[in-house]
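Possible regression after last week's pipeline update?

I re-ran a chain I had predicted before the update to compare outputs. Posting the input and the new output here so someone can diff against the archived version. Not blocking, just want to make sure nothing changed silently.
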Amino acid sequence: MLCTHISQQIYAKLLFEATFNQKKIIEQLSEWLSNEDYTRIFMLNGYAGTGKTTIIAAFVAALKELGIKTILLA
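New output (post-update):
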C-alpha cells in the first residue's frame, strides 16, 4: 500500500505520461523506498534522453511532499 502511494505521488509530479520503461523505474523506486532493508542502494543508469533526471526530480519532489529528506549523489 505504501509502495502504491509513493508511485502515485511520483506520477503526480511528472509533467507528461510516462513510457512503459519509465513506469517500470517508478514502480521499482517505490518498492525500493518502501522496503525495510535500508542497506540497499538504488542505482539508475541509462542512455541520454530516457528521462532519468526527470524521474529523479519527480521522485525527490514526491519525497519532499512525504516529509522525507533526500541527499543525491552522482
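Follow-up from reviewer: compared with the archived run. Residues 20-34 form the longest helix (15 residues). Marking as no regression found.
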